[in-house]
Specification:
binds FE2/S2 (inorganic) cluster; alpha+beta; 24 strands; 510 residues; nine-stranded mixed β-sheet; eight-stranded mixed β-sheet
Length: 510
């Protein structure tokens, strides 16, 4: 378990983006204060610093140490839930603008890499959509045609091809999307952070923000732990799940846990490409260079609503069984991890003014496309903060109404989350003495519910099971050794401290 309470480590976490970032204290002012230092926060800060704004970035933990460090580095502008679905939900013109903006975000990352000379192994490559296991050939051809037609409508390049070099799919109907990309996300952000500092931006780590207030006289005030204050003309909240919102945005998106594993593979076994299938949730394969003559193959999927299952080991086994069937020469498992994505009900992120505010902006709801949504936030918020119209704004407008078609679609597609392994139910344990190392459970104490866990060092922790954001009940996540809240995505360490918003206060003592 690391200092933040999490147990797993992604393939990228050997790189620290800004290890000597200071803690915030005292009172400071700037043009824009950005809360959250993942790809969204750093991209916004870089774009603003590039036009001469004084920007301050502040994060509750290490720089880029949140969900961005748990990405699988998929740089694909194609809607993660399928272009045909996006057209059905938002219409052809909005889907076209979505595609155009996501491609622009990817191009901006490429441009930054070149201009700043960032060594992050950015490369353009092909992506392949292939049928999920068990899909009949006719259905597979129909699905491919549907996505091909949708790609043409929105101006995305796509080609009908046959087969991918995955066992059993050598002759399958496949869609190829050229000119997608991947990179080492933390090396990229290390370069971006350095450029922000060069341009006069200031970056603070390990400094939790407690509130973001809009002032009646204009501007914003951000208050931090230990009494720090930042005053600015604008604020951008870029914290995976927004810490400044209680209900408005949170009713339009849901947090999901997603799982990934990296394996060794002799170099050249598979082409450097992105692969994903048509399952729901879908499986995917991504490649990354390893040491010597070895590649790392990243496989992932098996998503579930955060806090609604505690069976990570079984999900990892399922991912491993899936990928070993497709790639029989796969080597050993080198690391495994999980992360959290926020899925909106219409599959487009929220980037723009926070509902009801004039100077507080938000970036959230990346819907599985966190890397491109993050870079896009930099482009789009630069326009919005400087008062420049942009046709992409309406696509991502946080206050947008949800069309009735979307609500009907969601109702029809509500999936029951399957908990693959039984986990401890409230009241199932008679006493905390029964908790084993790394185990947590909700216990009853009269009318109160207690979140009790024994950490990997054997220390027992007991807190109220009520999430401090809006009162939902937390659930133990034995894979990450933390408490997850299924309502809006807060995570708490065994000692009750906040790991991930929207909560800003720790779990209360039992
Ligand atoms: Fe909102 Fe827990 S995250 S109630």
């Amino acid at each position: 378990m690391n200092a933040r309470g999490e147990q797993t480590r992604s393939l990228w976490m050997n790189v620290e983006v800004y290890p000597r970032a200071p803690k915030f204290s005292g009172k400071k002012s700037c043009d824009t204060v950005i809360i959250g230092s993942g790809i969204a926060g750093l991209s916004v800060a870089y774009e603003l610093a590039s036009i001469g704004q004084k920007a301050i970035i502040i994060d509750r933990g290490p720089i880029a140490g949140g969900m961005t460090s748990r990405t699988t580095a998929h740089l694909a502008p194609i809607c993660d839930d399928g272009l045909s679905t996006l057209i059905n939900l938002r219409g052809e013109e909005t889907a076209r603008l979505f595609q155009e903006s996501q491609e622009a975000a990817l191009a901006r990352i490429e441009e930054n890499v070149a201009q700043l000379g960032i060594d992050c192994n950015f490369r353009r490559l092909d992506a392949f959509l292939f049928p999920a296991m068990g899909v009949e050939p006719k259905e597979a051809r129909d699905q491919r045609q549907q996505e091909f037609d949708a790609a043409r409508k929105v101006g995305a390049a796509a080609e009908l091809v046959t087969g991918v070099p995955l066992k059993g799919f050598e002759k399958a109907p496949v869609l190829r999307y050229p000119n997608q990309a991947t990179f080492h996300p933390l090396r990229y952000l290390r370069g971006l952070a350095s450029a922000i500092l060069d341009k006069g931006g200031r970056i603070f780590a390990n400094s939790p923000v407690l509130s973001v207030e809009e002032l009646s006289e204009g501007g914003v005030r951000v208050s931090t732990e230990n009494g720090g204050v930042i005053e600015a003309a604008s604020a951008v909240v870029a914290t995976n799940s927004p810490i400044n919102d209680r209900f408005q945005l949170h009713t339009k998106m849901s947090p999901y846990r997603t799982y990934a594993m990296a394996f060794t593979l002799p170099r050249g076994t598979l082409p450097d490409a992105l692969f994903w299938d048509t399952g729901d949730p879908y499986h995917y394969v991504r490649m990354n260079p390893g040491p010597g003559s070895v590649d790392y193959l990243i496989a992932g999927g098996a998503d579930h609503k955060s806090g609604e299952a505690d069976d990570g080991d079984i999900r990892f086994e399922a991912i491993e069984a899936w990928i070993r069937a497709l790639v029989p020469t796969l080597g050993k498992d080198v690391t495994r991890w999980s992360g959290q994505v926020l899925d909106t009900i219409d599959y487009c992120g929220f980037i723009g003014l926070n509902p009801g505010n004039k100077s507080v902006y938000v970036v959230t709801g990346d819907s599985g496309q966190g890397m491109t949504h993050g870079a896009l936030a930099g482009l789009l918020l630069k326009y919005l903060i400087t008062g420049t119209d942009n046709p992409w704004a309406a696509v991502y407008e946080p206050s947008r109404k949800t069309p009735s078609g979307v609500i009907n679609y969601v109702r029809e597609n509500v999936s029951v989350v399957t908990n693959l392994a039984g986990y401890l139910m409230p009241g199932e344990l008679k006493s905390v003495g029964e908790l084993r190392l790394g185990q947590g459970a909700i216990l009853r104490n009269g009318l109160r519910k207690i979140a009790a866990c024994r950490d990997l060092d054997g220390k027992l922790h007991q807190h109220s099971a009520t999430c401090t954001h809006s009162g939902c009940e937390v659930a133990w996540n034995s894979t990450e050794q933390c408490w997850d809240c299924s309502c809006h995505g807060s995570h708490f360490a065994p000692d009750g401290s906040v790991l991930n918003g929207p909560a800003v206060s720790p779990l209360m003592a039992a």
